[in-house]
Specification:
The structure is a single chain. The protein is an alpha+beta fold and 410 residues long. It has one domain: Cytochrome P450 (Cytochrome p450, Orthogonal Bundle). Helices cover 46% and strands 9% of the residues. The protein contains 17 helices and 13 strands. Strands 1-2-9-6 form a four-stranded mixed beta sheet, with helices on one face. A three-stranded antiparallel beta sheet has the order 3-13-10. Strands 4-5 form a two-stranded antiparallel ribbon. Strand 1 (38-40) and strand 2 form a beta hairpin. The relative contact order is 0.18. InterPro entries: Cyt_P450 (IPR001128), Cyt_P450_B (IPR002397), Cyt_P450_CS (IPR017972), Cyt_P450_sf (IPR036396). GO terms for molecular function: heme binding; iron ion binding; monooxygenase activity; oxidoreductase activity, acting on paired donors, with incorporation or reduction of molecular oxygen.
Amino acid sequence: MTGGVLPQEQIPLFNPFAEGFTDNPYPQYATLRETAPVYPHPLGFWVVTRYEDVFALLRSGASVELRNVDSGALENLRQKDESRKTPLIDGFSMIDRDAPDHTRLRRLVQKAFTPKSIQALAPRIGELVDGMLDRIADEGGADLVPALASPLPFTVIADMLGAPPTDHERIRELSGVIVRSLEPVADPAVMQEIENADAELAVLTSEMIAWKRRNPADDLMTALIEAEEDGDKLSDDELVAQIQLLYIAGHETTVNLLANGTHALLRHPEQLAALRADADLMPNAVDEMLRYDSPLQSSRRITLEPTVLSGVEIPPGAMVVAALASANRDAARWGEDADTLRLDREGARAHLAFGSGSHHCLGAALARLEASITFERMLKRFPDLSLAGDVTWNGRINVRGVASLPVSVG
């Protein structure tokens, strides 16, 4: 059968709501890669699971804008309520825009997101990590998610933005609600909660921007306000949306990198020992952790023209789920030990955890820096780091990560 496509009755249904999927989705991905790598789901979308196909799709001219979904395919995918003025949901964010809008927004944001500015954060990240490790040491252990993995990236992005005095805990709560919009949500009450949170965060963000206009400083928020190219500046709605995006994307996925990565190391003691023995292994180790358990499991694309992957033609206007986590476990790309954590894996940086192409994650360098500093200092500080209880997952399908990681530090 061309491209591994089987008769419909034999195709294993991609079912992210199946029991145990959010704890371990990889067996289902493996089945799809083997039997239906380009899978037309009965609900009207497509799932692409092999590395080569996901890579090709991400680097193609496929769209991210929901308006390009064929109305007959997913007519009710996202109902538009004109009374709702929440910038992140309504598409002002760069992640929801195609070129040339995406190119323009990214270029303006990137002016304030340079490698030099990211590297300048290293001392502050180290200071934050040391303080959190001190508190964990005093207690003899902790749940690593609320003690370190969650507060660290949020504090870093708030510092980077130069956020003025505000209710940062509330912003973190709202971000946690809004990120659920990246999940398949059918419950109207949950959707309403997400929209309410987005609207509230938009107000808080607007207030911060107004304060920053009166009190400019050498920080990212000021740089975004002042960013200009050929007379082009971010509109008020675009500015709010990009700052919301930075709060959410700069926090949620890095939480998962730190928590999932620590969990993977503790489940592979020989790899943990290798990392302790060779500090030069750290950059590749972080990328291998990203490959092994991707903080973001998938990314959407909408085809604008007939697209052939693994010998299967996807029609134009189709919603396609590019399964990043599956691609990162594809034995055809990574070898027969693709399901194994191996910190010295050659070419680990070619993972797709940060996406690829024009929408490659803008914060990839920051996430890598936070992870490298955290793991280096945590492993040096705690030679007897070990699991101290049951690990639980957050129950999310897309922004999937460890929700509770109790550890002992000896």
